[in-house]
């Protein structure tokens, strides 16, 4: 697997200490990112510390607005407000970032996760206000990232204040939600819903980040399915040696790559003005697009929400009911873009959990019923009409959450033939209205199964020797 490891950077006088704990058997780590706060550490940089005088940091005491304090009092913020923060002079902060990042880069670090960014909006006094302070810090941060790390190696976190968002010109990846809280049962459904709705805004100019999750957890599949349709990077924060590899293999291919959808995952149009966490009736549907298909994640998020009195997420319904909704081809808003000319709106829908294949005419609905904290992932494939009258739709790797992400190319090859390129390894599924006469992978005929009732044809592809390799599959219908 391709591993991305985050660890903490402590800034001390005359040295920078990076702390990382993981088994020495993890020999295939390819990328390492280091965590630090936008002010260096939670408490900033100590004023006058030996070797750090040139940063000209000064103790400041952040002041939060009454509205923020009333809505969500924060122990971490209150601690900083009481004890103060050593804020590097905004005119010296590029020097601070550059020295920090150049040291990390020289040690082989590939990028940084820069946290606690919203603290700047409470530190604007004496610096021209919060907007000017945030702008100076963001400009310095981006300049240092560009100088020291390839591929714009930064993930932004705790940065939803508009001062930071609108001052960012190069930063591309931004956390779109609160943390994954493994021990808080109220948090999991809210996590999925909040990222989806935040992405309506953030996804227009940033790449939303869904945060880490545990692959060994009662809600692991729920979180994994959401990441699969989120169009985001996949992170797990498992305890070393404690992994559910069967689950991870639904997200990650043998070469370590993922079947990442093309866009940030957003709520479907009919979900925009519903409340899938509180109204007791609405399913949350999140749509995305692949190269030749769409994908929809459906989630029962009912039962928990933010409590205005308790100032935290609470379960308000310990036994939320089973809810019913529907999936349609038009739920994938931009499916026409990948369907090609001549598409009449008909789709084939593959249900990941149920394993069902359904042909949906244009505007027809597929009923969906979900119990509390259940999910389903639907691969939505435009139905192609072949010159010989048969209908065909390549589903992809049916063992993956985002099956259609494995299909990289589709083209007609003669009157009854289709050529499909597929990444990865495992069981490939395709819908055909007629039993295929022949299936070949890289020009070699392979065995396949065909279900007359559903039209599902299945066959196997092995583990490719090269990374990011696409098998060439020829199907004669």
UniProtKB/TrEMBL annotation:
UniProt keyword Zinc-finger present: no
Sections of the chain in a coiled coil: none
A Pfam family that the UniProt record links to this protein: Raffinose_syn
Domain of life of the native organism: Eukaryota
The protein's name in its UniProt record: Galactinol--sucrose galactosyltransferase
Signal peptide: 1-18
Family to which the UniProt record says this protein belongs: Belongs to the glycosyl hydrolases 36 family.
Keywords, in A-Z order: Carbohydrate metabolism, Signal
């Amino acid at each position: 697997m391709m591993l991305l490891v985050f660890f903490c950077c402590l800034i001390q006088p005359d040295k920078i200490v990076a702390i990382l704990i993981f088994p020495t058997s993890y020999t295939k780590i390819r990328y390492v990112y280091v965590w630090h706060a936008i002010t260096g550490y939670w408490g900033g940089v100590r004023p006058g510390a030996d070797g750090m005088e040139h940063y000209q940091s000064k103790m400041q005491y952040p002041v939060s607005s009454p509205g923020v304090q009333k809505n969500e009092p924060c122990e971490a913020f209150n601690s900083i407000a009481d004890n103060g923060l050593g804020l590097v002079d905004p005119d010296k902060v590029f020097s601070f970032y550059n020295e920090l990042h150049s040291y990390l880069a020289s040690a082989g670090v590939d990028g940084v996760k820069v946290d606690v960014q919203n603290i700047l909006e409470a530190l604007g006094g004496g610096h021209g206000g919060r907007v000017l302070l945030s702008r100076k810090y963001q400009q310095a941060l981006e300049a240092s990232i560009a100088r020291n790390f390839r591929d714009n190696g930064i993930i932004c976190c705790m940065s939803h204040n508009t001062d930071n968002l609108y001052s960012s010109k190069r930063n591309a990846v931004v956390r779109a939600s609160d943390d994954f809280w493994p021990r808080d049962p109220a948090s999991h459904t809210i996590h999925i819903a909040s990222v989806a709705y935040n992405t309506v805004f953030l996804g227009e100019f940033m790449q939303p980040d869904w945060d880490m999750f545990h692959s060994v957890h009662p809600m692991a599949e729920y979180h994994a399915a959401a990441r699969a349709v989120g169009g985001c990077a996949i992170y797990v924060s498992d305890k070393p040696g404690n992994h559910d590899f069967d689950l991870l293999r639904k997200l990650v291919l043998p070469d370590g790559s993922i079947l990442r959808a093309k866009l940030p995952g957003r709520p479907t149009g009919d979900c925009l003005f519903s409340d899938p966490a509180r109204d007791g009736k609405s399913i949350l549907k999140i749509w995305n697009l692949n190269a030749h298909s769409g994908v929809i994640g459906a989630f029962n998020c009912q039962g928990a929400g933010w409590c205005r009195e308790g100032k935290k997420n609470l379960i308000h319904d310990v036994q939320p009911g089973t809810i019913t909704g529907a999936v349609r081809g038009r739920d994938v808003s931009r499916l026409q873009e990948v369907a090609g000319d001549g598409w009449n709106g008909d789709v084939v829908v593959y249900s990941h959990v149920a394993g069902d294949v359904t042909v949906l005419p244009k505007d027809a609905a597929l009923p969906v019923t979900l119990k509390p904290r259940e999910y389903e992932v639907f691969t939505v494939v435009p139905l192609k009409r072949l010159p010989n009258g048969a209908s065909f739709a390549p589903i992809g790797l049916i063992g993956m959450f985002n099956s259609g992400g494995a299909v990289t190319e589709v083209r007609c090859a003669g009157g009854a033939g289709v050529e499909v390129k597929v990444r990865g390894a495992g069981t490939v599924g395709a819908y055909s209205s007629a039993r295929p006469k022949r299936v070949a992978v890289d020009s070699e005929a392979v065995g396949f199964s065909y279900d007359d009732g559903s039209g599902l044809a299945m066959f196997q592809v092995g583990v490719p020797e090269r990374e990011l390799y696409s098998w060439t599959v020829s199907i004669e219908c």
